[in-house]
Structure formats: structure tokens, C-alpha cells
Design brief:
By secondary structure, this protein is mostly helical. It has 26 helices and 5 strands. The N terminus and C terminus are likely disordered.
Length: 733
């Protein structure tokens, strides 16, 4: 390569583009490392947009880039990509080198998440400070607005967008999400920029003032104020009046940490606003964004790390009020979950709960929710001698439960409505119900939730005099309220503020431990009991079928060889899976009774009555329905009875007997073959065969014989008097 001073930036970029089409990834990365080391920032400035796009792909999905989401440890390029993109690798050195010179790069507003884009296009400044002071106003109007981002923001925007941008992937390119290069890099960036121990390593480059300039510094008087919380004011800031803030020296230390966090939250979670979610309840409204299972798993990684990051807060900082003595990173740990994540994650999960398919892939959403509502699992403390299910939730987590009440109660109610529509005979679905019941049955948790609900239901007058958290003494004009009264008032304010911020001032709160939800829980318990009986019935039937044996076993074939069902169907209904189903549902029933203080005797009687009714009806009762103008209409109970396999309609085929659907005990290939042969024979020789029939016999003067011989592979036991070879032919009667 020639000396850096002899090449122009345009020629350098053209040379790199040309080499990217011919050289393997390893050699390209080696050339890039050398280029980043040798060239000054002025000549590297034009490379960053092309390099970021060639690595992460284009924002419109037309360019796939390195396909980091499909790179796994077994791939040759896996380690090369990780080494080049790690937080202290060559790519980040390029970012820091350009950051020191304060270059800017534009991103069209159209590529921002829906609510942020809509807010800007309506002329209103977004709540997130990440987008403040960055809007560029072209003469052509607001629809062509751009964001001017510094190199670090520009890099993180593309990295975060890589997860949510639809791309066309090669056929057969599948692998585990947790093993992908993208997932590993997300984890590495989180640990590097949001460390549980120590501080964020400084940049290897600095500007003329000796430190990297914070791109969007906060005002020191309103540190983290209002982020992620609805402002009670009805006034909105217009985008042409972007607030100017003074640089806060303390923010210099963690601006990269805040930028990474805000970028991840905005790009991954902020696809739904409260207003948008309310509109989505209408079936005519099209979904604006549908997350994938991979997306949800990465969000869970973020949630788990933020809990660990927040829980690493020093004990003296945790108990004391914010002060100038604590570092900015410690202050970030104090507020990171509530003010940066809570609101957007709540709407994200609520959307997933309501729109995700009723299949086992919902497990990713479920575990993300359970990870968020159990921060005590990520404290780094040893579990001790108590088993996990018997560990009491410490009282110190009571404020977290109160400030996240809807995360526990509202999402539990939404999950309840989902569970009653799910096939609980499936072991994977039964496992999810068991997981939720197990988490909520942890000692002391239900009591904390009940106390939070009681605080929310306190009379409204306690909020009429909203005062700052630091109360005045009587000599300073404060009240003579006792310390206990002040604490209760503060807790009431905390819970009500949380609920109104997430659901709006006019929300109708339903108690988790109220009468209405208790009835819904009893309905779920009944469905669980029905699913247990169904699983037992299927298991018994499978055992009998396995013990019987059939004619096909003479040829070394099993019934599974003839079924054209999807792969894994037999696995789902295998004896081992049904045994797990029974075990999961048994434990779920036990835990639900513990959570809602249900009477074990009543539960046992309910299950006994259900079992008795099923035995009496012998499974032949019709599903529950009402009579409509055009016939019976299924009720909700009837739908659940069909889903659970408890009841079914007696459906009979009434068309041409020779054209009825192929049975599971028939060989589909031979049925079709013999039907075509018999049809061809009847078509060509039907007249001759009719002429040969003696007069007076059926068919002697009528139309040709039916053209549909079927090869029916019946079990020998079904027709004991018929020789086996006779079963290979004959008309269907």
C-alpha cells in the first residue's frame, strides 16, 4: 500500500470497495486494520458510512452485510468478525478516531422506530434526549428530516438496527441465537459499556481539550429527569425549539454508556406508544411491527444484564439519596431500569402477549417477562441452602414490586386470557403455565403484590398535595405528619404514578387478587384439569395401540411410516411428553392454589367431578354450543373443549364414497394408484363388463361400475375371519 499522504480519500474508499468484492474476509479485515492505523481521521471520515453498511447491512435491508446474526462458532468467519468488532477492536478504534474530530453522519428520520418518527413528523420533540439537538431541517419539508449523529451514535444505531431490519437470508441458514456473532457482540458491548464492576475504559483518542466530548450532555440540575415517564404537563416541545443544555462535566464519564443504552432501548423496544397500542385493539388496524423470536431473546439478554448492572450498586449508595459524592455510573445504576426501560418494555411485552402465535415459540417472550419481574435472580449472591422454589423474596424488593405493579398484575391477566386458549396437552405449553405459576408462588411475592394493589386503591386525596421526595421540617413550613405517614404517602404516590404513566389517567385497574380474576383463575384450573385428563386418555390409548400390533408390523412397518403428518407430531404425543405434561400441570395446579389461597378440597372435588363426567360421557359428548340461524355456534367453552381434545363433533362424509378423504390407516400412495387404475379399467372396459353380467343382476343395464377401488390397510384384528391377502383389495362399502 502506498504512503497515506499520496492517496485521496475518494481513491482510498474506491480501493477498499473494489477489494471487498475479491478478497476473503480475513484479508479484508487485515487491510482495514492497517488502513485505520496509518491514515488520519480526515481521510478516514468518508470510509465509516460504507464500512458500517458493509458490516451490518443497509437500513432498508437490501444489503445483508456480514450476516452477523447467521454467523455461528462453527463458521470460519466467526472469530474474524468478533475480533474486528469487539469493544476494543479495530472498528471501535476507527469510531473513536473520528469521534475526537467531531464528525457528523446523517440518518434519515424514516428509519427511526414508528412512534419516534411519527412524533418528529408531527413537529413534536421526542421524549428521548438521544434525539435532541440532532435534527437537520432541509428546505423541502419535515418528511425529509435527517438526524446528525456523531461517529459513536452512528455506529451504535446501525448495530442496533441490524437486529430489527428485515433481510433476505440464504436458504438453510439457521442456528442457535445465543451462539450467533451478533448475540455475542451485544453481550460484549453491554459488559464493556455498562460494567457491573469498575468503570468504562476511556477512549484511546482524545480531542484538544483532553477528553471525548459528550455529544448530548445533560443539564446537571435535571439528571435523568423524566426519561421514560409521561410528563403531567400537556405542553409539548416543538422540534424547532430544541432545548439547549449546558455541558455537564460529570456526564463525560458515562455518555457512551447512556448512548448505547438509549440506542438499544429505542431501536429494540420503542415500536409502540400508549396511544398506538390502544389503536391496535381495533382489528382493522394493521400491526406496525412484529418482533421475531431472535429479537425477543436479545431483549431478554438486555434485561438480564441491566438487572445485574443495577444490582451491582454499592449498598451505601443504594440506601442514601443521590448526592455529589456518588459517581455518574453509580447514579446510572440507580435509575437505569425504571427510567430507561420500564415503560417501553411494558408496551413491548403487552403487544407480544396479545399478538404472538399460540405456539411454543412464545417461551422466549415469557422468559423475558419472568426475567424482568425477578431482579433478585441477578444479584450475584449465592443461592444458599434453600431450593430455588422455596426461596423467600426479600423485603428489600418491595419498592421494585410497587414501582412495577402492572408488570406483575396486568401482564399476568393478559397471560391468563392467553393460557385458556392454548393447547395445554402439549408439554411445551404446559411447561410455560407451570413456569409462571412457580414464579408467582415464591414466598412473600404474592403478599408484596397485594400490598401494592392496596396502595393504588388508596383514596385520591393523598395525592392532592404532591411534594418533593425531600419533605420539609415543621420549622421550614413543612407538615407535622409522622415519618410513617410520609412513607405511606410516598409509596402511594410511587404506585399511582407508575400505573398512570403506563396506562393513562383514565385506566380501569383490575385487581389481580379481586373477585373477577379469581373466577378467571378457576376457569384456568378447570382447563388444566381437563388437559390432565386428556393427556392421560391419550397416553392410555397410545399404550394400548403400542401393545396391540398390526398387520403392517409383518412387513416391518409402523403406523408412523404411513402418516403424512408434520415431523414431531408423534414426539409431542409420545408417552414421555404426556408424562411431562401431567407433571407440569400437577405442579401448576399446586402453585396456583398456593398463590390464590384456594381450598385443596374444592380443587380435588372439581377434578373428581370432571373425571367422572368424562368417563360417563365416554368422550362422545358434543362441544358446548348455542343454536344459531345457520346451525350450532361454538361458545368459548366449546372451543376450549375442542382444543383440549375433550369433545368433538361427529363429522361424517356424505359425498362420493370413492372420493372420501384418505384415512390415517391407509397408504395414501397406493390408494391414489389403485383409484387411477380402477378408473382407467372402468373407463375402457366398463361397457364390456356390464354386457357380460347376467341379466337381472344389479348393474347389468346401468352405468359402468364405480371407478374407485381403494387399498384399505385394515388391522387384522378388525376382520378376524378375512385372510390377510383379502384385505389388499375390494371396494369401500
Amino acid at each position: 500500500m502506498a504512503a497515506p499522504t499520496l492517496q485521496q480519500p475518494s481513491f482510498l474508499l474506491a480501493n477498499l470497495k473494489a477489494e471487498s468484492c475479491t478478497k476473503p474476509l480475513l484479508q479484508r479485515c487485515q487491510d482495514l486494520v492497517k488502513t485505520i492505523e496509518e491514515y488520519p481521521a480526515k481521510e478516514l471520515h468518508g470510509i465509516l458510512p460504507w464500512l458500517v453498511e458493509s458490516v451490518f447491512g443497509s437500513l432498508d435491508g437490501s444489503i445483508a452485510g456480514w450476516n452477523l446474526r447467521l454467523l455461528h462458532s462453527r463458521c470460519y468467519e466467526y472469530n474474524i468478525a468478533l475480533e474486528f468488532l469487539n469493544p476494543s477492536g479495530p472498528m471501535m478504534k476507527l469510531v473513536y478516531k473520528l469521534q475526537a474530530e467531531e464528525y457528523k453522519y446523517e440518518i434519515p428520520v424514516n428509519y427511526l422506530p414508528g412512534p419516534v418518527k411519527a412524533c418528529i413528523q408531527e413537529g413534536v420533540l421526542p421524549d428521548c434526549p438521544l434525539f435532541h439537538n440532532k435534527l437537520q431541517f432541509p428546505l423541502s419539508g419535515l418528511l425529509t428530516l435527517n438526524l446528525a449523529l456523531n461517529p459513536f451514535e452512528f455506529f451504535m444505531f446501525h448495530f442496533a438496527s441490524c437486529l430489527v431490519t428485515p433481510k433476505s437470508h440464504p436458504q438453510g441458514a439457521q442456528g442457535g441465537v445465543a451462539d450467533s456473532a451478533y448475540f455475542v457482540l451485544v453481550n460484549a458491548y453491554l459488559k464493556y459499556f455498562l460494567p457491573s464492576e469498575g468503570s468504562v475504559p476511556p477512549s484511546p483518542f482524545s480531542d484538544s481539550r483532553g477528553s471525548v466530548t459528550a455529544p448530548s450532555p445533560r443539564s446537571s440540575s435535571v439528571s435523568f429527569a423524566g426519561y421514560g415517564v409521561h410528563s403531567p404537563s400537556l405542553l409539548k416541545h416543538h422540534i424547532f425549539h430544541q432545548p439547549s443544555v449546558n455541558a455537564d462535566p460529570a456526564a463525560q464519564e458515562i455518555w457512551r454508556s447512556e448512548t448505547l443504552l438509549q440506542m438499544f432501548v429505542e431501536i429494540w423496544l420503542h415500536h409502540y406508544s400508549l396511544e398506538m397500542y390502544q389503536k391496535l385493539q381495533s382489528p382493522q388496524v394493521k400491526e406496525p411491527f412484529s418482533p421475531t423470536e431472535e429479537h425477543v431473546l436479545v431483549v431478554r439478554l438486555l434485561v438480564k444484564h441491566l438487572h445485574a448492572f443495577s444490582n451491582s450498586l454499592k449498598p451505601d449508595t443504594l440506601t442514601s439519596s443521590p448526592s455529589a459524592h456518588s459517581s455518574p455510573l453509580e447514579e446510572l445504576k440507580r435509575v437505569v431500569v425504571q427510567r430507561f426501560v420500564q415503560q417501553k418494555l411494558y408496551l413491548f411485552l403487552q403487544h407480544c402477549f396479545g399478538h404472538w402465535p399460540l405456539d411454543a415459540s412464545f417461551r422466549a417472550v415469557l422468559e423475558t417477562w419472568l426475567s424482568y419481574i425477578q431482579p433478585w435472580r441477578y444479584t450475584g449472591e449465592a443461592a444458599g441452602s434453600q431450593p430455588d422454589q422455596n426461596r423467600t423474596v426479600p423485603d428489600k424488593w418491595e419498592p421494585f414490586v410497587q414501582e412495577n405493579l402492572l408488570m406483575f398484575t396486568k401482564l399476568f391477566q393478559v397471560l391468563l386470557n392467553r393460557a385458556v386458549r392454548t393447547d395445554l396437552v402439549n408439554a411445551k405449553n404446559a411447561l410455560m403455565v407451570f413456569r409462571v405459576a412457580k414464579v408467582f408462588s415464591q414466598p412473600n411475592l404474592a403478599e408484596m403484590i397485594q400490598k401494592g394493589e392496596q396502595l393504588f386503591l388508596e383514596p385520591e386525596h393523598v395525592l392532592h398535595h404532591r411534594q418533593p421526595r425531600g419533605y420539609l421540617t415543621p420549622s421550614q413550613g413543612g407538615s407535622f405528619l409522622s415519618s410513617r405517614q410520609r412513607v405511606v404517602t410516598d409509596m402511594v404516590f410511587r404506585v399511582k404514578s407508575h400505573v398512570y404513566a403506563l396506562e393513562g389517567q383514565d385506566c380501569q385497574y383490575k385487581q389481580m387478587f379481586g373477585t373477577e380474576l379469581r373466577g378467571a383463575v378457576m376457569k384456568l384450573i378447570q382447563i388444566i384439569a381437563q388437559a390432565r385428563q386428556t393427556a392421560k386418555r391419550i397416553s392410555d390409548h397410545s399404550s394400548e395401540a403400542a401393545a396391540g400390533g398390526s398387520f403392517l408390523s409383518w412387513f416391518g412397518m409402523g403406523s408412523s411410516d404411513l402418516n403424512n403428518t408434520f415431523s414431531g407430531a408423534e414426539h409431542e404425543e409420545s408417552g414421555e411428553c404426556l408424562k411431562k405434561t401431567h407433571e407440569f400441570l400437577d405442579k401448576a395446579l399446586e402453585n396456583l392454589c398456593q398463590i390464590f389461597k384456594l381450598n385443596q378440597g374444592q380443587l380435588a372435588q372439581l377434578i373428581a367431578n370432571l373425571s367422572s363426567s368424562q368417563d360417563d360421557g365416554n368422550g362422545k359428548q358434543l362441544p358446548d354450543c348455542i343454536q344459531g340461524e345457520n346451525g350450532p355456534i361454538l361458545t368459548d367453552l366449546g372451543r376450549q373443549q375442542i382444543i383440549s381434545g375433550l369433545r368433538r363433533f361427529d363429522i361424517q362424509y356424505q359425498g362420493d364414497p370413492e372420493l372420501q378423504p384418505i384415512r390415517s390407516y391407509e397408504n395414501a400412495l397406493l390408494v391414489r394408484l389403485f383409484y387411477r387404475i380402477s378408473s382407467l379399467v372402468n373407463e375402457r372396459f366398463g361397457g364390456n363388463m356390464n354386457a357380460l353380467l347376467p341379466s337381472g343382476l344389479p348393474g347389468s343395464s346401468g352405468p359402468p361400475l364405480p371407478g374407485g377401488s381403494r387399498l384399505v390397510l385394515q388391522e387384522v384384528e378388525a376382520q378376524p375371519d378375512v385372510p390377510p391377502l383379502a384385505l389388499l383389495s375390494g371396494e369401500r362399502g
